[in-house]
């Protein structure tokens, strides 16, 4: 994780990964530890109707990526945000100083998604995404490689360790003096 020069007072972090990898749990804990703002994209889409309806097959909203980006533009320029979403390729690269991809062992992920009541097709699709590291590849293709970090997220100890690592990184992050 490399310090990025910019005008923000605080960094922006994207936490991404396959559904069930612990994005919201880790983002919530990190926000509490650092006083940064946690933005859960799924909640934002529902609250502000930033979608094009419901996909019955995927059992989720069809987000309107342009509306989401328009909604976030000002707050992202301010900095100090932890954005939590299972996709990452539609956000502007300039928004993020660090992109965290959470990864979970497939058997653990399968159990988590089963407990959520995921349909077989959705469960299989998400486990396959994790096996093939789809989100890690998407992050590496969408952002500078020095901004992307993969972190294990199998249990509460992993979440605690990740929060501690990221909290240290945030404390050491500094934007250059404003001109």
Automatic annotation (TrEMBL):
Catalytic activity: AMP + ATP = 2 ADP; ATP + H2O = ADP + phosphate + H(+)
GO BP annotation list: ribosomal small subunit biogenesis; rRNA processing
Gene3D superfamilies for this protein: P-loop containing nucleotide triphosphate hydrolases
Class of the enzyme per the UniProt entry, highest EC level: transferase
Single Gene Ontology MF annotation: AMP kinase activity
Signal peptide region: none
Short name of any one Pfam family annotated for the protein: AAA_18
Binding-site positions, ATP: 20, 22-24, 116
Entry keyword annotation includes Transcription regulation: no
Cellular location(s): Cytoplasm; Nucleus
Region of interest (NMPbind), residue spans: 40-63
EC number: 2.7.4.3
Any GO CC annotation of this UniProt entry: nucleus
UniProt-annotated stretches for the region Disordered: 1-21
Region (LID): 115-125
Primary location group: cytoplasm
Keywords: ATP-binding, Cytoplasm, Kinase, Nucleotide-binding, Nucleus, Ribosome biogenesis, rRNA processing, Transferase
Annotated family: Belongs to the adenylate kinase family. AK6 subfamily.
Oligomer and partners: Interacts with small ribosomal subunit protein uS11. Not a structural component of 43S pre-ribosomes, but transiently interacts with them by binding to uS11.
Protein name (Swiss-Prot/TrEMBL): Adenylate kinase isoenzyme 6 homolog
Organism from which the protein derives: Cicer arietinum (Chickpea)
Gene name for this UniProt entry: LOC101509100
């Amino acid at each position: 994780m490399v310090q990025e020069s910019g005008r923000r007072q605080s960094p922006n972090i994207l936490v991404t990964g396959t559904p069930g990898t612990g994005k919201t749990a880790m983002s919530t804990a990190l926000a509490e530890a650092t006083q940064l703002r946690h933005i859960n994209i799924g909640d934002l889409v529902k609250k502000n109707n930033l979608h094009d309806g419901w996909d019955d097959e995927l059992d989720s909203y069809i987000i309107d990526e342009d509306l989401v980006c328009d909604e976030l533009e000002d707050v992202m320029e301010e900095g100090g945000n932890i954005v939590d979403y299972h996709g990452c390729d539609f956000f502007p690269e300039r928004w993020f100083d660090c992109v965290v991809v959470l990864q979970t062992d497939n058997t653990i992920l399968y159990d988590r998604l089963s407990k959520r009541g995921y349909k077989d097709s959705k469960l299989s699709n998400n486990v396959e995404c994790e096996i093939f590291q789809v989100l890690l590849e998407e992050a590496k293709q969408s952002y500078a490689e020095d901004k992307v970090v993969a972190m294990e997220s199998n249990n509460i100890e992993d979440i605690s360790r990740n929060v501690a690592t990221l909290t240290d990184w945030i404390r050491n992050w500094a934007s250059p003096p404003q001109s």
